[in-house]
Amino acid sequence: MTDHWHTALRHVRGAELSGDTNQTTGMTRLEAVSGKTVGSSKVWMGQTHVAPATNSGDHHHGETETSIYVVSGNPVFVFADGADEVRIETEPGDYVFVPPFVPHREENPGVEEAVVVIARSSQEGVVVNLPSLWAPVDRGAGSDGV
Hints:
The protein is mainly beta and 146 residues long. The protein is built from one helix and eleven strands, in the order E-H-E-E-E-E-E-E-E-E-E-E. The chain has one helix at 35-38; strands at residues 28-33, 44-50, 54-55, 59-60, 66-72, 76-81, 84-89, 95-98, 104-108, 114-120, 128-129. A five-stranded antiparallel β-sheet has the order 1-2-10-5-8. Strands 3-9-6-7 form a four-stranded antiparallel β-sheet, with no helix packed on it. Strands 4-11 form a two-stranded antiparallel ribbon. Strand 6 and strand 7 (84-89) form a beta hairpin. The relative contact order is 0.25.
């Protein structure tokens, strides 16, 4: 009989993070915990690095919820609210929640690299790159909106 409750923990060393994930211009995503790396089925976790004086491209993460923890630097998270561009300025220790399908971008106006830890409600690092924050978002079949 198989014991599904007593399985091995998985250890992913910082030096073993994989860059083999979807990328957005201006930033580097490193995958730590995912279906590919540890066989997770409900969570994706990794790091994003944004160089000084750099902006990412506009993007969203599909139907996944995204939680961001700021490790270093002062990244700015930008999203559209109607016709307005809203900017959330952060510092180390802050958290940001990104709901499903919300177009956004990361900016690093500082002089040091910004590093954040990301957790998503999917085992894969879903990234959909967009031409702008106001671009139409395809929510796929069976969704409640456009």
